[in-house]
Amino acid sequence: MISMKDAIAAALGEFVERITGVRPTFRPSKKAHLASSDFLRNDADETAKLLSAHAEECTLFSAPLLKEIKAENGWLLFFFTADAIDAYEAVLPEPEEPDDSYFARRLWITVHHADAETPDDPVLLDGFYAALFSAPNGEQRFLSAPRHLDGTARVALEQRMKRMANILLWERRNTL
């Protein structure tokens, strides 16, 4: 089974190359889920508009991958959908009990919540993709993401993180 990081990089790379003729490299970003500066010499604004016009063609396991593409200071900023998480998690095997790291144990607890569609919460999605792509403080960003809500809304969000936690556990188990 291909890792979600690799699956996203392949799907996004093929999509961008098909539309622009350039196969970019991607980096984690504080401003987006992934970013590329390969278009600094080209007009990143025009490239973002061109890619946005075809965004529905970029899929992961037949689910839409791209939510939004922006250009900023010569960078292309890519934002992904919650649908891609659900589609990827559906093909994963059941998780195994993790190692003794704090992050893995928290994920293990979360995996035992009831199954539900991944919430389309921007703060939570930012935290998930930061952890997935090993961005600085990515694990902490994911674990603390529900804290932007209070009370029952926070609990409800935490109980819908099962699929994200399962993916992150699987990624850790297969990269360590």
Gross morphology is globular
- Largest sheet properties: 3 strands, antiparallel
β-strand percent reads: 5-15%
Number of domain units: 2
Overall residue-averaged pLDDT value: 91
Describe this structure in words.
- The protein is mostly helical and 176 residues long.
- The protein has two domains: 4-84, Arginyl tRNA synthetase N-terminal domain (Gyrase A, domain 2, 2-Layer Sandwich), CATH 3.30.1360; 93-175, no CATH class.
- The protein is 48% helix and 11% strand.
- A three-stranded antiparallel beta sheet has the order 1-5-4, with helices on one face. The protein has a two-stranded antiparallel ribbon with strand order 2-3.
- It is globular.
Helix and strand arrangement:
Blueprint: H1 4-20, E1 34-36, H2 44-53, E2 59-60, E3 63-64, E4 66-72, E5 75-80, H3 82-89, H4 102-111, H5 122-132, H6 138-144, H7 151-158, H8 162-175
Antiparallel strand pairs: 1-5, 2-3, 4-5
Helix pairs in contact: 3-8, 4-8, 5-6
